[in-house]
Every structure is written in structure tokens, then in C-alpha cells.
Amino acid sequence: MNGSDFAFLLPEIVLVATAITVWAVDFFTPRDRKPDLAWPAAAGALVAMAFLAISWGEHREMFLGTLRLDNFSLFFRFLFLTVAFFVIVGSPGYVRRKLRNAGEFYGLILMSTVGAMGIVSSREFLTAYISLELVAFGFYVLVSHARHEARSNEAGAKYLILGAFSSGLLLFGISLIFGATGSTGYAAIAAALETTPDFGMVWTLGVALVLAGLGFKVAAFPFHSWAPDVYEGAPLPITAFLSVGSKAAGFAFLIRLFAEGLFPVLDDWRVAIGVVAVLTMTFGNLVAIQQANLKRLLAYSSIAQAGYILVGVATLNADTTSGMLLHIAGYTATNLGAFLVVIYFHNLTGKEGIDDLRGLYRRSFLLTLVLAVSLLSLAGMPLFAGFMTKFYLFTAAAASQLWWLIALAVANSILSVYYYLLVLRQAFITPESEEEEQRPAFRLPSHARATLSLLMVLVLWIGIYPSVFVDAAEAGSRALFGG
Amino acid sequence: MASYLPLLVASVAAIGFVGVALGLGFLLAPQQFSRLKRTIYECGMESTGGGWRQVHIRYYLMAILFVIFAVEGIFLFPWAAVLGEIGTFAFVEMLVFMSILFFGLIYAWRKGAFEWR
Amino acid sequence: MDLVSTLALLAKGLVVLLIFLAAPLIFVLAERKILGRIQSRRGPNRVGPLGLFQTVADGIKLGTKEDIIPPAADRVVFWVAPLFMVIPAIAAWSVIPFGPMVEIGRETGLWITNLNVGILFVLALGSLNTYGPVMSGWSSNSKYAHFGALRSGAQIISYELTLGLAVLAVVVYAGSFSLIDIVESQRHMWLVAPQFLGFLIFIVSGVAETNRAPFDLPEAETEIVAGYFVEYTGIRFAMFFIAEYANMFLMSMLVTVLYLGGWNGFTIPGLEGVSGVVWTMAKALTLMFGYFWLRATLPRLRYDQLMSFCWKILLPLGVLNLLVASVLRMVWS
Q1: I want to staple A396 with a disulfide (CB 3.0 to 4.6 A). Which of A17, A116, A320, C133 is the partner?
Q2: Which phi and psi angles does C99 have, rounded to 5°?
Q3: Is residue A115 part of a domain?
């Protein structure tokens, strides 16, 4: 090991340095200026992105093989940086209204991002686990960051306890797998599986525990119960970050683990994962229909989305992997758009119920437009990212011949249109009362307009002409599967 | 391992010493029951309530900070022992590590973790 | 291991245990005598010639007193706590060198064992010292004891950090954890010269670690009576005393070994064979005298001053000291 490995970790180093700088500057910033620390933090994310772009196409084993930089990790690291950038840029208004300790808020977002970037690069259980903990520790604090709100504290406590519990499951699973195969490295585990196809109960239990632990992180069906409460209680930007960043990190962990380590035994698990996928999406969609709160609705909708991505995990191969990467990218852009609308709406009105959206189209055209684009995309309507990415994912999954899985996924996708349209009905059709008609139009800050438009363009771009993203996703999946 | 055996011997000797002392105390000391003798001492006042009370949060902060810096110390010890041989790069690495932790100290300081109000 | 070295080991262990037993007896008496002289009193002078048997009498008295366990206490923890004080204090002696290699029938070192992680072992046992006060104070279920336990716990862990940082700088100079190697490395220059700051930090932290004046807040008689061991009686009470004095002597020995060159010194005429031991003991006993002198001279600190002194002054100084030491080491090698 020498210094040159560090050159390829420059994006991470930049993020850590930015976070510490933000915390340090926070000491000397007057309270009313603290929310503006978002701009240096976001700039740090951009600089990190620039450094990341330099290492494009580089394949490299680092730190005794614990980390591997390839197109897969590059894809996700880029994704996480994008998420961090948009979450931070979307935050200042909310932070000004609701939160103290703004410096810590932005810095911790960056730190969690560093953890997520570590997960996707690691090809070894313990490195991945430590990175996952870095993500989670940031979130434990961030979720309960609105210290004077009971809901936020409740969410923080729930997340902490369940998160610690799931980490325990994961770690126990890792130790069992280590006990069975004698290694924590994915490649070594795969090699051990080649020679000894059956490790018996210990092995099965280990994999099941790892799946359960990661199931918590991505909020898959039996382990989803923390998600709605935490999503509802957490500060809105953090809800957005959780639903996108944390989830994508969990899936990246799963995909790399299965592709590089457990691929030889994947066939034993396909049906189980498929059943979990179906239960997850069905549950998420059915419960989402009854929601009256936008945050909760988006929480259940993101549970359902996790179900769709799990379809890809159940049918894992090179094609479904690129489908999943594409879907995660599309989902990220879409969900960020939806959440940014909710954040700005909340900043202006202090409300987050679905009813409160009445007359939105009159008060702000841009908010309504982005909301419509995002929700239609989540519902999987053609022209929008959701359709294109689901199409890729499901057609790739169809090759596995798990027809019931594909059929149920498509049925669910159609089912979900209903509740997304319910929201849009409030925004467009339901008439305002006379009193409500007097309310003035919204004035969005210019950076809000810029970010919203950017995300909308991104959603439409993925939906209409996705070849750039498809190429990137395929390059990512080739990094895992070769060819 | 031979150099560790004496540690075992020393520990056994220590336990033996304590055992003998306690045994002697048990044999020599009188045991007479008295209700007053068994109450909790409170300067001659009658004691009210037990001693197990809430602990001020600042002790908790101390404990957390201690854990952080104790872990720093654990990483520093092997580094310090081989400092002459490992070269400038490892030295600089450790400087970065220490400066991050030192930032933690400054952070706790600025946030008032050491103020005993 | 052959029979002779086993016997040698046992003999050395026995000697150390005897020193350990005798040390509190001697030091308690010495402290009372010295304190008396400093305060223009005579100190104990009734039992035996010049009061020499005072502490023996005290020991016998404590041994024949009833050993009371309050019904309100947590019996098991209450019972175990004194053991946690005494056992680490004895075990730590097994790595302390009293003198160089000598010729007693054959080559043998005047230490029980040369552990290659000796200083780490001492520090580890030193951190066990946190448990004794906290366990005894908590289990007593008494308010004074509770406060004493909290104070002592927070104080010991805080000063342990600075103690560790000072030791780190020593390790940087010596390049080894073994106490014997550390002493050997001071053959030409005692470490107190290049490490004067570290020496001061170590002394202050050491005094605080042993809960001695002016850092004796955990057992401040005037406010919380006796702190964490207020509920203890008889032989158990004596154990806290034994542990305290043993730890003080251990700390003096550590300063001797780490900073004052251990057994290094010119050969004393007429004492050629045991010159090293004499040097070590002379240095350690001088430091013990320093302990008593401090207690007689300095008033007790306020608790907030105590803690902020550690975290705001001593800890940054310790880090600085380590940095300077390591930079010097890098430049020098």
C-alpha cells in the first residue's frame, strides 16, 4: 500500500474535508447565517464530482483488495454525490425555518454520503459494514435533528433502535458466513462456494441474516415498519435523502454482494427474494392508497419502489443489473423532484397534507408541473423516467422465466397509478373554497426554480432519450459481470 | 508466552493475598447485628431515599469523549513504537488522523462540553 | 521452564508481594510523620519507639472490626469492588523493573517478567482502577458514595488520556513498550530532559489518577465524607487504603522508570552490587515524598477546574508534546 491509492479516493477525501470545514466555519457563523452553509457544502459535492469524473473508466483494486473502483462503484458514487448535492441545495429554506445547528446538518449529510460511497466500492463484508454504519450514524443524528419536535425525536429513537438491531443481524450474518467460508472477501467467498457447494445450516442462516439486515436498510416487506414513521418524523430534506440515498446504498450493497460473492448460490434464493419483492410492492402500494399525508404517501411509495428493484435482485444477471442501475437512477431523480416540491411547499405553507395541495396549479405553475412529472414518473407513465426504467428492468427480468413475479410487478405498477393520480387531482382539479382563492401565488427562490427545473429535465431526459444513462448502467453492470 | 506466565502467577498471588486478608477479617472480626449499624451513613441524619439517583448528563459527555480519545490512543500506540522505521508517509497519515480527532476536541470545547455549569 | 528459573520467579514474586505488603504500612506512617513535621506537629509517636508501630496497630484494629454490608447495598458488587482495587494494584508490579541484570548465582533481571508490552499492561491495569471506585460507590447505595464514584470515574478516565499521551511520547523516544527497554534507552540521558513537558503532564495525571491531593475530590472529607468507600468497614476499608498507597508507589516507580532513568546512575561506592536498586528506590521514594509534600501544601481543586484543566490544558499540551516528540524523532532518524 502506498500513497497512490489515496489519489483515487480524492472524492471521498474532498467530502470529508468539506464536512470538517463546514463544521469549523459553523463555529464562527452567526446563527441567522448558518443555513447558508449549504452553499460551501454543495460546492464540496460538486468538486468531489469533478474529481470523480477524472477517474472515469479506471478499474483498480485498492487497500489489499478491500475496495474496488470500477464503473459500478463509479456509477453509484456519482449518484450519491448528485443526491447529496440536491438534498443540500434543497435544504436551506427548510433549515432556516425548522432546524438549529445547520453546520452539523450539512456536514453529516456529506459524511453519510462518504459512507454510501464506501459501500459501493467495498468488496469485503467488514469494509462494507463499516461504511454502512457511517451512513447510518449520520442518519441517526440527522433524523432526530429537529430536536424540539417530538415527532423528529420519536423518529430518531425508532431509527436508532431498529437500525442498531438490523446492524446486529447483518453483523451476525456476516460472522456466520465468515465461519462457513473462512473469509469476508466476496471473491474468496465465491471461490469457497465453487469448491464446497453446500455449507449447511450455518451458511443458510448467515445469508438469511444478511438479507434481513439489508432488508431493514432498504425497507423491504417484513422489515419495513420503521420506514413510514421515520420518514414522517424526519426533517423533510432528510426524508428525501433517506428514501433515495440510503436505499440506493442498501441496494448497491446487495447487488455487489450477490454479483461478486453469492452468485453461485443465487438460484436457491431467487424465489424467496421474489416473494419478498412482491409482498413489499403490494404492501407499499395498498397502504399508500389510504394516506392523507404527503410524506407518508411518499414513504409507502418508496417501499413499493424498493419492491420493484428487488425484482431485479431476484432475477439477478448482467441485464437486470443494468436495469436496476437505470431504475435506481431514474427513481432517484424522480423522487428527489417529488420531495423537493414537498420541501418548498412546506417552506411556503408549513403544511404537508395531500388536501393542502388544493389550488397548487394556480399558486405555482412550476411546483405543480414538477410534482406532476415526478408522480407520473413514479407511477410509470410513458414519456417519464419511471416508464422507461421499469420497462428495461422488467423486460430484462422476464428472461428469468419467473412470470408470476413479472406479472405481479406490472399489476402493482398499474395499481400505484391510482394514488399518484389522487394527489394530482388535489393539485389540479379539486376546487378551492372562496376563502382559499384569495391566497397569493407562491414566490420560489431562484435556486429552487433552478433545481426543480433541472430535476424535471433529468426525469424527462431519462424517460425520452435514455441512451447515455443506459450506456452508463450497462458499463456499471459489465464491471460486475464482465463481457 | 513464557513472559506472560508470571502475570498469571502474580494475579493468583494477588487473589491469594486478598483471600487471606478477607479470611482473616472474617475470622477475627465480630459479627453483631444492629439495625442502626446497617443504615446508610448520612452524617448522623436519618437518611432519606436511596443513593441510586439520576446522573448528570455531563458525566455522559465525559464518557463519550473518553471513548473517542481512548480509541485514538489505541491507534497511536503501535504507531509510536515503530515511528522510526515506517517512514514519512505513515507519519503524515497519522498526523491527518490526529488532526481530525483534535478537531473533535475543539468541537466539543466550542459546543461547551467542558463547561461545568 | 526449568526448576531453577521457576524458583527464581517465585522468589522474586514473593519479594515483590512482601514489598507490596510492607509499602502501605511504611508509607502511611511516613506520610503522617511528614505531614506532622510540615504542620509543626510530631505525628504519631505513641505506639512503639517513635510511633513506628502505629500503622501495624491500625491494621490490626481494622482487621478485627466488623465487616458491615448495608442491606440497601448491591451485595455482590459491594463485595467485589475492593478486589478490583487491590488485585490490579498488585498485578501491575510484575512488569516493573527494580534494577538491572545482576549476578545472583546466574544472570537474572531484577524484575518479575520482561513483557514486550509492559507499559501497555500497566496502563491497562491502571484503567481497571476506574472500576473499583465506581463499583464500590454505586453499590453502596449512599449519596456520598454515589457522588464519590461519579467524580472518581470521570476524573480517572479523563486523566488517563493525558497519562496515555505522555507515555506515547516516551514510547516514541524509546521505540519499545518494554519498561526494561525504556530504561535501557535512557543510559546516556534521562528522558526528563527532552521530555520535560511530558514529565510534568505525567506527574500531574499520575497524582490525579491516584486520587491524591490536590486532586482528591472523590474522597474529599469535608464535603462527601470519604467518597466512594464511605460505607466500607473493617478489612475491606483497609483494602482501599492498601490499594491507594500501592498505586501511589506504583506511579512513583513508573515516573522513575519512564523519565528518571530507572536504575541508571553512577555506581555508588560500597554498594557496587545493588547500586541499581538503590538508585531506583531513591528516585521512587523521593517522588513519594513529593506526594506527601503536595498534600501538605496545596489546597483541593474545585471540580470544574479539575475537569477543564484536564481537557482544556493538559490534553492539548499532551497532543502538542507528542507531536513535537514525533517530529523530532522523524527528523532525527
Answers
A1: A320
A2: -165, 180
A3: no
Dist. CA A456–CA A372, nearest whole Å: 10
pLDDT for position A53: 84
CB-based contact B66 C158, cutoff 8 Å: yes
Residue of B nearest to C143 (CA): B51
Nine-digit cell string for A320:
437486470
Q: What's A185's DSSP letter?
A: B
Shortest distance between the Cα of B92 and any Cα of chain A, in A, equals 11
Which domain does A341 fall in, by range? 268-483
In the structure, do chain B and chain A come into contact, i.e. share 3 or more CB pairs under 8 Å? Answer: yes
Q: How many domains does chain A have?
A: 1
Query: Do C and B touch (≥3 CB pairs < 8 Å)?
Result: yes
- A3, B110: Cβ pair inside 8 Å? no
Question: What is the DSSP code string of C45-87?
Answer: -SSSGGGTTHHHHHHHHHHTS-----TTS-HHHHHHHHHHHHH
> Read out DSSP for A364-421?
-HHHHHHHHHHHHHHHT-TTSHHHHHHHHHHHHHHTTT-HHHHHHHHHHHHHHHHHHH
> If pLDDT is split at 50, 70 and 90, which confidence band does C225 have?
confident
A20 within domain boundaries: no
- d(Cα A257, Cα A189) in Å, to the nearest integer? 10
Q: What is the C-alpha to C-alpha distance for residues A71 and A141, in angstroms, rounded to an integer?
A: 31
Contacts of A20 in chain B (CB under 8 A): 100, 103
C-alpha span between A243 and A238 (Å, rounded): 8
| Count of positions (residues) in chain C | 333
Chains that touch A (3 or more CB pairs under 8 A): B
Rounded to 5 degrees, what angle do the CA atoms C80, C84, C88 make?
150
3-state secondary structure of C110: strand
Q: What is the pTM of this model?
A: 0.83
Task: Say whether the ipTM exceeds 0.90.
Answer: no
How many C-beta neighbours within 10 Å does residue C192 have?
17
Tell whether the torsion through CA atoms of C296, C298, C303 and C307 is positive or negative.
Answer: negative
Q: What is the CA radius of gyration of chain B?
A: 25
Please report residues of B whose CB lies closer than 8 A to that of C68.
Answer: 37-38
Chain C CB contacts of B55 below 8 Å: 150
- Domain edges within chain B: 1-31, 53-117
pLDDT digits (tens, 9 = 90+) for A152-191: 889 999 999 999 999 999 999 999 999 888 888 888 888 8
CB contact under 8 A, B89 and A2: yes
Of B101, B95, C315, nearest to A20 by C-alpha is B101
A20 contacts B89? CB cut-off 8 A: no
In a domain, A471, yes or no: yes
pLDDT in tens, A363-410: 888 888 999 999 999 888 888 888 888 888 888 888 888 888 889 999
Closest residue of chain C to B68, computed from CA coordinates: C161
Separation between Cα atoms, residue A115 and residue A322, nearest integer Å: 23
**Closest approach of chain C CAs to the CA of B88, in angstroms?**
7
Q: Which three cell numbers stand for residue A205?
A: 442462516
Task: Provide, as residue numbers in chain A, all residues whose Cβ is less than 8 Å from the Cβ of B103.
Answer: 20, 23-24
Residue C21 to residues A93, A369, B8, C237, C248: CA-CA distances in angstroms?
70, 85, 19, 15, 14
Q: Which among B89, B100, B110 has CB closest to A27?
A: B110
Q: What is the pLDDT of residues B29-44, one digit of tens each?
A: 777 777 777 777 766 6
CA–CA distance, A261 with A128 (Å, rounded to integer): 13
DSSP state of B35: T
Q: Which of residues 2-21 of B touch A (CB under 8 A)?
A: none
Tell whether B22 lies on the interface with A, counting CB pairs under 8 A: no
